[in-house]
Design goal:
Number of domains: 1
Order of helices and strands: EHEEEEEHHEHEE
Strand order of the largest sheet: 2-5-1-7-8
Strand content: 25-35%
Shape: globular
Helix content: 25-40%
Amino acid sequence: MAHAYTVEFRIYGEALEPQTITKEIGLNPSHIALAGTAWGTRVHRHSVWGYSGFEEGHSVDWEWLEEGFVYVLDRLWPHRQLIARYKAQYQVAWWIGHFQSSFDGGPSLSSSILLRLGEFGADVFIDNHFVDSNEPEESGSKEMSKTK
């Protein structure tokens, strides 16, 4: 692995009730958290409803960031007007994990996906992680998509 990406769309806020978002949108989240609950050594400041297109607790590493965006966008696109209304009360963002074992390269996005992301109307946050390629993978590690 030189580079791998996780893609998750998140709605979050202190007063957010994730089960309400699930009911209104009609999609099962891949990640939920309530404000004040522990997360590793930290505590969630906000409640979070996260969607990656996969069931809760299951994540996929994408070899190409754009491929991950397209996969999640295709599933959220029919709900974009409802999601846009949440912006008045909550924050919405794309949460991207960028896992790299080298310092060369990185994500590239086409103008067409950038236009689509702009139309969807959520900020993009990229969290970069260096992964030592010499370390053995942990059990339950993420799967890598090889479709591009």
